[in-house]
UniProtKB/TrEMBL annotation:
Gene3D superfamilies recorded: 3.40.50.11980
Record's keyword terms, sorted: Endonuclease, Hydrolase, Magnesium, Metal-binding, Nuclease, Zinc, Zinc-finger
Domain C3H1-type: 251-276
Entry protein name: ZC12D ribonuclease
Taxonomic superkingdom: Eukaryota
Zinc finger (C3H1-type): 251-276
One Gene Ontology cellular component annotation held by this UniProt entry: cytoplasmic ribonucleoprotein granule
Pfam families: RNase_Zc3h12a (PF11977), UBA_6 (PF18039)
Cofactor: Mg(2+)
Similarity remark: Belongs to the ZC3H12 family.
GO molecular function, one term: hydrolase activity
Signal peptide stretch: none
Gene: Zc3h12d
């Protein structure tokens, strides 16, 4: 039991010394939820977050030099560079599997489809949380399809089992939703689920904002995983900006004026006029005033010249 708890929290990125201290204070029979709360209370953070919080060392580069030394980068759990522009992905495995199985079968193939979709987009940090009892043989009241996929994803360090055990013949299951929201919040990532986590929103105001802004819902069209193109609504960011750490603002596109050169609005026209790029866009009334002022000024100069003679 001690080794299984050590392995579980080590996968989440916590140090072995902090885990041992908590287990000694709470006891070996402590629930994983209590251990996680104690780690958070102690101020312990996953190693990836601690490395990210350390200030990077800046180097002076000679003026005009084109070559620059690469800065310090922290590596993810899979050893690859995790400092890309894409957010970490945390998938609610039970929600995705049951959705793909039409809420009747726990379809592990649905989890694989979701993981492959984010892999193809270039995401390097992908975690799937599934209760530990899903490793047990399927029963009639809880059928499971393609159960071998869970083993393959666990070997790839993508799938994480939330702990569960049996006490006097009854299964005691830890709340996997808390793991999902907690890891996504610490990693500043995205939660993939159709669940709204209302109980956790009421539990923590910071989690409430995070769930509202970082929850990515989805649909399955046959065997195709399809998130919406507008995750936060019609007036929200696009899917690419939603999944990126640094959103790219769209360029402002000017609509050409439907009247073209016949437009009489001048500088008050809100449309684009390619023929007026290098001209002062005056209205018709202003142009007429400018034309009438020029001959009037010339006539005054001629009168002054005649008087001086």
């Amino acid at each position: 039991v001690h080794q299984s708890k050590m392995d579980f929290f080590c996968k989440l990125g916590y140090g072995k010394q902090d885990i041992c201290k908590v287990l000694e204070s709470l006891g070996q029979e402590a629930l994983e939820d209590d251990v996680l709360k104690e780690l958070i209370r102690m101020g312990s953070k996953p190693q990836a977050l601690e490395n990210q919080a350390q200030p990077s060392q800046l180097k002076l580069v000679a003026r005009g030099s084109c070559s620059s030394a690469p800065g310090l980068k922290w590596l993810g759990e899979d050893g690859r560079d995790s400092s890309d522009s894409l957010r970490p992905i945390v998938i609610d495995g039970s929600n995705v599997a049951m959705s793909h199985g039409n809420k009747e079968v726990f379809s592990c193939w649905g989890i694989q489809l979701a993981v492959d979709w984010f892999r193809e987009r270039g995401h390097t940090y992908i975690k799937v949380f599934v209760p530990l009892w899903r490793k047990e043989p399927p029963r009639q009241d809880s059928p499971i399809a393609d159960q071998h996929i869970l083993e393959e994803l666990e070997k790839q360090s993508i799938l994480v089992y939330t702990p569960s055990r049996k006490v006097k013949g009854k299964r005691v299951v830890c709340y996997d939703d808390r793991y999902i929201v907690k890891v996504a919040y610490e990693r500043d990532g995205v939660i993939v689920s159709n669940d709204h986590y209302r109980d956790l929103q009421n539990e923590n105001p910071e989690w409430k904002w995070f769930i509202e802004q970082r929850l990515l819902m989805y649909s399955f069209v046959s065997d195709r995983f399809m998130p919406p193109d507008d995750p936060l609504g019609r007036h929200g960011p696009t899917l690419s900006n939603f999944l990126s750490k640094k959103p790219v603002l769209p360029e402002k596109k000017w609509q050409p004026c439907p009247y073209g050169k016949k437009c009489t609005y001048g500088n008050k026209c809100k449309f684009y006029h390619p023929e007026r790029q290098h001209q002062a866009q005056l209205s018709v009334a202003d142009e007429l005033r400018a034309k009438t002022k020029v001959p009037f000024a010339l006539g005054k100069e001629e009168q002054r010249c005649q008087c001086s003679r």
